[in-house]
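To illustrate the input format used throughout this study, we show a single complete record. The first block contains the structure-token representation of the backbone; no residue identities are included at this stage. The design step must infer an amino acid for every position from geometry alone.
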């Protein structure tokens, strides 16, 4: 069973939504620079790509924690498995 209150669940969902919106903005920037050729544009694309990868990792790790706290053990374990394969997590 969950040890999170309804308020905590709502806060977590809103946090995920905000992180996902930020990740989508980063993805748009990377996509816009897909055909970059100048060193400056390539550097900018790399910077946004790295930020997007960090946001992906943050979303995944946060998912493991929140899903586990909500009592959604199988979903948390699935996310943990992906995080472990990505080298982001060592224990649940």
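Output of the design step:
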């Amino acid at each position: 069973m969950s040890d999170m209150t309804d308020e905590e669940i709502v806060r977590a969902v809103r946090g995920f939504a905000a992180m996902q919106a930020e990740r989508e903005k980063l993805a748009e920037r990377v996509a816009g620079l897909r055909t970059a050729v100048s060193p400056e544009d390539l550097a900018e694309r790399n910077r946004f790509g790295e930020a997007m990868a960090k946001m992906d990792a943050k979303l995944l790790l946060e998912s493991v924690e929140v899903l586990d706290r909500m009592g959604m053990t199988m979903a948390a374990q699935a996310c943990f498995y992906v995080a472990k394969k990505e080298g982001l997590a060592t224990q649940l």
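Structural context for interpreting the output: The first helix runs from residue 6 to 32. Residues 6-85 form one domain.
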